Amino acid sequence: METVREIGALRDAVAAFRADGQLVALVPTMGALHAGHVALVEAARRPGTKVVASIFVNPRQFGPNEDLARYPRREQADLRMLEAAGCDLVWLPGVETMYPDGFASTVSVQGVSETFDGASRPGHFDGVATVVTKLFNQVRPDTAYFGEKDFQQLAVIRRMVTDLDMGIEITGVPTQREDDGLAMSSRNIYLDEEERGKATALPRALGVAARSIGRGDDAAAALEDARATLIAAGFTIDYVALADAETLSDDPAPDRPRRLLAAARMGATRLIDNIAIEDS
Ligand code: PAF
Description:
Blueprint: E1 2-4, H1 7-19, E2 23-29, H2 35-44, E3 49-55, H3 75-85, E4 89-91, H4 95-98, H5 117-120, H6 124-139, E5 143-147, H7 151-163, E6 169-173, H8 193-198, H9 201-214, H10 219-232, E7 236-244, E8 258-266, E9 269-276
Parallel strand pairs: 1-4, 2-3, 2-5, 3-4, 5-6
Antiparallel strand pairs: 7-8, 8-9
Bound molecules: pantoate.
């Protein structure tokens, strides 16, 4: 596995893959890798395809009071995981490469980025769309892989790729979970032991509500029950809501694919999770 830190070296390495007739798949990450990221690399591995992973903790997607400074950084462990997962090339740009002096452009996706996390974290999805556009332009992949754990992010990126004719196939990979159901996240390490125990209420409450809504029960009542369960478990709720799975509208039509989304704080840690509504 090769690692590159300069854009020229990246372009040379990708050109060598292309010269060899290979397709290029990109797995963008912010490092602090876990089994969820490994699943992205494994999904990206195909005969005739080289997998490029990027590691860049993107300051533009963190709000002023968010966890940029303490976001876990562990490059050596990340590289070992990527190599073991079968990644071919790792792109490790510095902040000065991504945002040199004078940088003045923002990619902003309306609508789908305005609800839920977009409302709670102003500027977050502009930061994501901008850095993902840069990563796409730097690597110029054929395909790119993103986790469904960040469901709204995936929807924003799909909209952006369509709107801007980027011509990159986007694949969403199902959320990887711990044995007790908690969605894997680089931020789970912020939880102390007691908080970690209580955090399992989040996937449980979402599962109960999603099954109830899928059976045709009253959605508002199911959401209210989920909120009450989370509050009883010690969560402070940001949102627990039903969304259109494509547009992320918070008023989804019942005949459209729907997703149950939640964000809630356990102590100082903000956790998100989501689950499909499957009619039963
Ligand atoms: O999902 C993430 O880790 C980040 O939001 C991404 C897509 C790598 C952009 O910084």
